Structure formats: C-alpha cells, structure tokens
Fold this protein.
Amino acid sequence: MKKVFGYFKPYKWHSILGPLFKLLEATFELLVPIVVGLIVDRGLGASVDGAYPNADIPFIVQMCIVLGVFGLLGCAFAVVAQYFAARTATGVSARLRSDLFKKLQSLSYKDFDRLGTGTMLTRLTSDIDRLQSGINLALRLFLRSPFIVFGAVITAWIVDPGSLFAFVVTVVALAAVVFSVMLGCMPLYKKSQEDLDGVTLSTRENLTGARVIRAFCREDEEGALFDRRNEKLAGSRKFVGALAAITNPLTYALVNGGIILLLWTGAIRVDSGALSQGTVIALYNLMSQILIELIKFANLIVTVAKGVACGNRVESVLKMQPSLELDEDGEGAKNAPFIVFDGVSVRYSEGADCALENISFTAKRGETVGVIGGTGSGKTTLVNLLPHFYDVCAGQVLIDGKNVREKGMQEYLRNRVGVVPQKALLFKGTVRENLQFGKSDATDEEIFAALKIAQAEEVVAEKGGLDAPVHQGGKNFSGGQKQRLTIARAIVRKPDILILDDSSSALDYATDAALKKALKTLDTTVFIVSQRTSSVQGADKIIVLDDGAAVGIGTHEELLKTCEVYQNIYRSQRGNEGGGV
C-alpha cells in the first residue's frame, strides 16, 4: 500500500481536515452524557422515591439549549468532514484508476498474456471501487471511533473512578475480537477478489464470443463453467462474510455484558448513596457510545480490510515493469538495409519452445514482403517483432540500422509503424474519429486518399460519409468493411512500415487484388501476412514459415521451384485462385 499512499499528497489537507472535524464532532458527542447527568442530578433533583420536589426548570432549559447547540455544531462538523473525506477518496481513486490504465497501456503483449483480461478489468473497476469505499470510511471513522472509545473511558474515569474496571475490561475484550477478525479476513478478501477475476473473465468471454458459442452449441458447457466459477466466488464470499459477521454479535454480547456489570454495581452504589442517579445514567450513555462506535469500527475494519486487499492488488500492477527490455542508444549500422532480421529467435515464456528460431532476412525501403505459412507457423509473431511488441531471445531486429530495442527507437516505432491486426476493431464514435485515431490532425483530403487506397470509399459513401456513426466494435459494419476501414486507418498516418496481419481475409479476390495494386503506389515497406498465395505472390520477397522456421525466402516464381511447403500451399489453393505450377 506504500505506493497507493503517495496518491494522497494532493489531498494532504483534505486528509487532515476530514478526521479533524470528525474529532470535533466526537468531542461534542462525549459531552452529551455529562450534560444529561447534570440535568438529572441538578435539574430534576431526583429522589429515591421518584419525586422531583427540587426541579430547576431554568437550568433544564439551559442544558437543553446546550444540547441543541452541541447537536447543530456536531451536524455541521460531520457534513464538513464527509465532504473532505469524499473529496479525498474520489480524487485518489480517480488518479489511481487513471495511472493504472496508463500502466496497463505501457505493458507489453507478454505482460497482457500473463495478467489476463479478467484480472485487469477487475482491478480497474471492482478493486478501485472497494479501495475508494475503504478510504472514505477510514477518513471518517478510523480516528473518530477510537477517540470516542478511549474518550468515553477517560470521561467515565473522571466522572466515577470506580467504574474504570468495567470499561477497561470491555474495551480490551472488544479490541481483541475486532483485530482477530480483521487479521483473519484480510487474506480471505484477497482470495475472494482473485475468484472474482475468474467470473469477470468468464463473463467477458461469453459476451464477446456469444456468436461463436451459439454456432458451436456450447451454451450449456459455458453456462456450467460460469456456474462453477460463480459458485466458487460465492463460497469464498460466504465464508469470509460469515467470519466477518461474527464481529457484530460478539461485540453486542461483550458491550451488553459490560452494561449489565455497570448497572449492577451502579445500582448497589446508588442504593448506598455513594453514587448519584445522574452519574449512573452518564456512565450508561458512555458505555452505549462505546457499543455504537465499536460496531461502526468493526464494520470499518471489514471495509478497510477489503480496501487494503484490493489496494495491494492494484499496487502489484503499478509496480510491474514492462517485460520489454530497452537498450541504450547505439551508433547504428551504416549502409545497412532498411529492415534486417539477424538470426532472430523468440519464445513466449521462459523454458517454452521457440515460436520462431534463427530467422534471417532483409528488406529494402519501399519493398513489399509477404509472410505465408500454416496455422501456428509464427507469421504474426514475426511481424510483431517490428513494432517491438515482443522481445527476441536471440539475434536482433534492425530498422534503418538501429536495433528496435534501443530507447530512442520507441517513439519512432509508435509513430512510423502502422499495424492492421488480424481482428479488425473499430471504436465507438464516427468514421472520421476512427480514421483519425493514428493521426489526430488528418484532413479530409488525407482521409479520402487513404480510403481510396484501402478500397473503402464506397463503404463510407454507403454509410453516409465521414460523420457516419460507428457502434462499439464496429458492429454496424460487415467483416470486409471493417477490414478496409482499419487498413485505411493505418494508411492515414503515412507510415514508413505498414503491417497487414491477415487483414484482407474477408475481402473477395478482386478487391484484394485492387488493394495490393494500390499499396504499390505508397513509398512504404509493406509486410503482408496471409495464408493465401494470391495475396502475397506479387510481393518483392516472400518468407515461408513452417513450425517457426523460415523454410523458403524468395519471389513467387523462385519459391514454386525451390520450396516444397510453398508448392503445397499453392497447389491446395489453385483450384480457387486459378492457374497452375
């Protein structure tokens, strides 16, 4: 939680003033039993037989006015304290959520694979919400409740030293119960939040993959999986809830036992004349205040325990360092080709087999490079090394003579490399906003030029122009329309390197051919990942991958003569594509 505490710095005075005003409110609350005792002893002048022959009406009225003033001041202080506490809790959680989102954006693909989407969503939403509730309650009650408890003990000692024993025994017993429950609950709340990650993940997968689930009639299996995860979460929540629920009955039992002891001893002392009725009433009210405050404090401990567990989960992400390694800037290789893969090998985790092994090739500026191979051969992994989405475990990737791992290359890679991923994704907004995603100041002329190259002009015209609405995920566009718009989005930024990762799979052959022809007009090095030979056969260089190894590099004609894997792919597709070997 140390890192989380740093977010309180802009709200330092709010964090001080909130508890301070709560303590002022508590001070007036502690004075109320004394005033009530004075009303009974001096105002009413009560006797043993219950008669009030010496009642002092003016004094009673004065004391009632004092109680009213105490109530108004306490209410005002409570409202001010609530404002400062809420302002602090909301501000801290907002800044924390913003920084957590930025941290997630800075992590690599490998880190995303390790964390999981469900965990990231839970920490951004549920964990920070619980932490916010914990901060709010802590600022309002964490000092107030102990202040009331110990203040009531001290006040009781001042009013009647003989009652100190009953108060001390009750408070010690209550403190032991509250802190025992807190220590037991904290690790259980952490485990409960981890179970929530599984439910969140299952929910997300079922919502995003609803069509796939229905297409394969997997509703029952997915429902059963969700039920298992939900039951596991419910079981952990019930267990920790039952443990936390013990606090209230134990607290009530202990405090009521203290009250019984106090009234029993007080009655004996009143009967002997050693204690007044007003003093007993004041002591009873003080003991009742301890009961109320310890109940609040017990609930506070439960909420704070949840907040601390969630805060530690959030902090663990904030402390994460991106797994991508950055080197100090070097001089760079002179007169080197624009792109160089030099003995590159990649593995996704330590001890795993290599996804790519000993890949070497070069590409000149303005060339078109095709990447083809079977499913799982490493095509996407290869092109993901260009923008440094993953680290190599051997070899190096050079762009314009500089290693992509150099610190000075990161800004270039983000600004000058355009990526069109396998899954076409559009964001909620308008067509214009989506196409300006890579270049916020792109003009309409630049946008329409990109749309023309991507064969998407008619798509925009049919939808009503650049200001046409786009639903979340582009659900109001077909697969081919989304692919063409995502290609246009990447072209708008005029990248030096354009990566098309199987991004034309939903296009017909005529549109695909027109797209490849239009891309030739760009002064851009284009990497085309595809499983169709028709998409890459016009490339200046084709890399054929098989099980992570480059089994062939050359032009379409050269590979038909020398690469058996490429020949097999071509033969399996020529019935659809036409032509022959």
